[in-house]
Amino acid sequence: MKKYLFSSDPKTGEAREVKVDPKHFDKQLREERAKGRTITILDEDERIRYGLMTQQLRKGGAR
Predict the structure, then answer these.
(1) What are the CA-CA distances from residue 11 to residues 8, 36, 37, 38, 48 (Å)?
(2) Are 4 and 45 in contact (CB under 8 A)?
(3) Contact criterion met (CB below 8 Å) for 2 and 43
């Protein structure tokens, strides 16, 4: 199953998606943590659920 890596800066709240390199995934995690960033790893289903939840929150409330 495909993994999605999101990295966020706790100081600014800026979040970004990092393209996952399966061969160097552990290294990517170490590098992001070394930068002081917060890491979230999602699989395909979780990414869809989070996306839907974000859309609901932007529209004015979760159901």
Answers:
(1) 9, 9, 9, 10, 26
(2) no
(3) yes
Which tokens go with 33?
């943590």
Complete DSSP assignment for 17-55: EE---GGGHHHHHHHHHHTT-EEEEEEHHHHHHHHHHHH
Amino acid, res. 29: L
pLDDT in tens, the chain (63 residues): 899 999 999 999 899 999 999 999 999 999 999 999 999 999 999 999 988 998 898 888 655
Beta bridge partners of 3: 43
Alpha-carbon distance of 28 to 47, in angstroms, equals: 19
